[in-house]
Write a structure and sequence with these properties.
CATH architecture of the largest domain: 3-Layer(aba) Sandwich
Helix content: 40-55%
Strand content: 5-15%
Oligomer: single chain
Distance between the termini: 65 Å
CATH class of the largest domain: Alpha Beta
Radius of gyration: 24 Å
Order of helices and strands: HHHHEHEHEHEEHEHEHEHEEHEE
Mean pLDDT: 91
Number of helices: 12
Length: about 350
């Protein structure tokens, strides 16, 4: 035992008849160590109540056994779900997590990334703000050999790993579902066109209209409509139109929720007069007066995969031959049908 009876990696190594470096790699999930040895180390560590020494790790590696994650907003259940899964996955590999929010501001996002780099985190996961077009910090992360993974909102062009949904298919599937309901005049609450995810959802919507033989009406596409406030504003504008859409594909749930509430307050029936489908499957969707149909993006899977991709990069950072090429992982989505479209 170490000082004051504390179990060290040297104690684990002695019990397992191996080296301290092998134990250290096994504890971090390094795939260069056999699964049999990783399992044996993890089992013994649990039996002896081993806890890693973050100070020793920092002195040895220059890093602090920590991952950073930057989200656009913390006050969204969608991003909270991602953070939860990311943190759980990281902690299983003995990594702490530092959480930051950009509040949809590119300057705050860049500042957060640089603060994490200053803390010498081992890797960073980020979902872009609506203002971020070309992330300048990607070069800085590369220069510091700090792995960077983008999730959910990813850049148009990047050399880093990404994990996201097939947003083109999301737009296509949501529009087709409205058509199955019987809608023929389908509008779209589009997100900011600075972000690839929202561009792709709009393109999927357009392709579905084309395949259905329905007209694309520019006046029925409302950009930057992903908040409660903008959802209400756009719904009021729709109420003043001589020819209204009879179906709405909203790029986010919050604008869909606000629009539905406005439509109903003005005397329209959802879904008979106007059907609505959103994206994100927020936890409140089933409990609305008219439950909202939505695209489930499986945020827990997004968070888990973002953490796993970072940990893989960290474990192989010192071996050029073992580094895989850039990874672009797509998480499958599902349509959750509820009363707003049934």
């Amino acid at each position: 035992m170490g000082k004051q009876g504390k179990v060290t990696i040297y104690d684990l190594a002695k019990r397992l008849n191996t080296t301290a470096s092998t134990v250290s790699r096994a504890l971090s999930g390094n795939t260069r160590i056999s699964k049999k040895m990783r399992d044996a180390v993890q089992k013994l560590a649990q039996e002896l109540n081993y806890a890693p020494d973050p100070i020793a790790h920092h002195l040895r590696t220059g890093r602090g056994s920590a991952l950073g994650i930057v989200v656009p907003r913390i006050d969204r259940n969608f991003f909270a779900g991602i953070i939860s899964a990311f943190q759980e996955t990281a902690q299983r590999q003995n990594y702490n997590v530092i959480i930051a929010a950009s509040n949809e501001n590119v300057l705050d996002e860049t500042t957060a990334i640089r603060a994490l780099l200053a803390k010498k985190v081992d890797g960073i996961a980020v979902s872009l703000s609506v203002e971020t077009i070309h992330p300048s910090y990607e070069v800085e992360c590369g220069m510091r050999n700090t792995p960077l993974v983008y999730f959910d909102r990813v850049p148009q062009i990047t050399e880093s790993d990404t994990v996201s949904n097939d947003n083109f298919q999301i737009g296509y599937d949501a529009t087709m579902q409205l058509a199955r309901k019987g809608c023929k005049r389908i509008g779209h609450f589009a997100g900011p066109q600075t972000l690839k995810s929202y561009v792709d959802r709009l393109e999927g919507y357009k392709k579905a209209l084309a395949d259905l033989g329905f007209p694309f009406r520019k006046e029925w596409v409302f950009e930057n409509t992903i908040t409660l406030e903008t959802g209400t504003e756009v719904a009021l504008r729709i109420m003043e139109m001589e020819e209204k859409p009879d179906g709405i594909f909203a790029a986010g749930d919050f604008s869909a929720i606000a629009a539905m509430d406005t439509f109903i307050s003005k005397g329209l029936k959802v879904p008979n007069d106007i059907a609505v489908v959103g994206v994100a499957n927020e936890s409140l969707d089933p409990y609305l007066k008219t439950p909202l149909a939505s695209i489930d993006l499986h945020q827990q899977r997004l968070g888990e995969l973002a953490a796993k991709m970072l940990l893989m990069r960290i474990n192989k950072a010192d071996n050029e031959e073992m580094r895989p090429p850039q990874q672009r992982v797509i998480v499958k989505h599902d349509i959750i049908l509820r009363e707003s479209i049934l």
